[in-house]
Structure formats: C-alpha cells, structure tokens
C-alpha cells in the first residue's frame, strides 16, 4: 500500500516587519522573504477528499503573515523559530522547515537567511 508524504512549499512569501537591533532597524520596517516546507502523511486526505484530513496551508500562511507583520524581532532566529512553530502546529505535520531571508542586509549579498527545521516523532 502506498503511503504518500505530502510536501507543501510556501514559496517566497514577501512581508515587511521590524527586525534587527540597530537603531534604523528598530524604527523602519524591512522586507523579509519566507519559505516554508511542511510534510504530512497524505493518505487520509486523498482517500477521503476531506479538508479536515489535510494541512490547511492558507490558514498557516495567514498566521505567518499576522505574526510577522504584527510583532518586532531582534533576531532572525526568533522570527524563524516562531514561524516554524506555526508550521508544526497541525498535529499531523511530521516535518517542517522555515527559511527567513533579509534582502539587502549585507552590502554585496542578495540577502542573508536563516533556516530552522523540526521533526515530530510518530
């Protein structure tokens, strides 16, 4: 019997938030680019065609937007960890990875990013 593992990818979610500890970063919102990967067993979702058996990526995305835009962060680590927690919140998620990038954070680089991941034991 096939037991497929669904892999959702929220690709290049572009938001603005207060992030950083320099004075200009504390007073001016900056762009962040978020990528998230969410894995869960998809068997019940495709067998039943019932949304209750799937991970609702729209709900997760809305939570990520609200959290990012309505809070302040000193470190990429904090924002990334918070977003990872949101991605892991559905009980049937088995793995999630979140990358948050700050474009233009370094003079000669396109961006600086931080990635965190988590696995739920089954």
TrEMBL record:
SMART domains membership: FolB
Domain Dihydroneopterin aldolase/epimerase stretches: 8-118
Enzymatic reactions: 7,8-dihydroneopterin 3'-triphosphate = 7,8-dihydromonapterin 3'-triphosphate
One Gene Ontology cellular component annotation held by this UniProt entry: cytosol
Domain of life of the source: Bacteria
EC number: 5.1.99.7
Keyword line: Isomerase
InterPro entries referenced in this protein's UniProt entry, alphabetically: Dihydroneopterin_aldolase, FolB_dom, GTP-CH-I_C/QueF
Family: Belongs to the DHNA family.
Name recorded for this polypeptide: Dihydroneopterin triphosphate 2'-epimerase
């Amino acid at each position: 019997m096939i037991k497929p593992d669904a892999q959702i990818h929220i690709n290049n979610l572009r938001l603005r938030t207060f992030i950083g500890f320099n004075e200009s970063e504390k007073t001016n919102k900056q762009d962040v680019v978020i990528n998230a990967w969410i894995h869960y067993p998809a068997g019940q979702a495709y067998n039943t065609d019932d949304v209750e058996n799937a991970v609702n990526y729209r709900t997760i995305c809305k939570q990520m937007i609200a959290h990012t835009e309505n809070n302040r962060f000193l470190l990429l680590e904090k924002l990334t960890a918070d977003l990872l927690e949101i991605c892991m919140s559905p009980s049937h998620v088995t793995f999630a990875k979140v990358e948050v990038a700050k474009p233009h954070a370094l003079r000669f680089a396109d961006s600086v990013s931080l990635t965190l991941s988590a696995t739920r034991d089954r």
